[in-house]
Amino acid sequence: MTKRELILLTTTILFASTTAGLVLQGKLHHGPRPGFEHGPDGKKGPRPDFFAMMDTNKDGFVTRDEMTAHQTKRLEEMFATVDTDKDGRLTKDEMDKGRELMRAKWKAKMEAERKAAETAPAAPAPVPAQ
What we know:
This protein is mostly helical. Helix content is about 60%, strand content about 0%. The longest helix is centred in the last third of the chain and has 28 residues, at about 90-120. The chain starts with a helix and ends in an 11-residue tail after the last helix.
């Protein structure tokens, strides 16, 4: 066995044993990302309550008007947060600070999802097809 083959074999064994250890400890989560569970049709997508939140008249459809109203509300909330002097206009400084604020909120949300995934029970091993 050459030195290169020995290094490759050692690296492969180390990687496999580390991954197996993480799986056994439940620290390697292979389930759906929180908020992106599988829907009734088995496809990944936004959680059902997101659809329900936009379907304001509860008819089972999201119309262009409902989606526009939802997005407009979100944009108005973001604008109000970033417009710190409440003059109805954004300066470059307000936009820069707002972008940093939104980035910090996004990072906090991703960290919370990561922690939730770490503490979630490990997904059951898939059953091999026969």
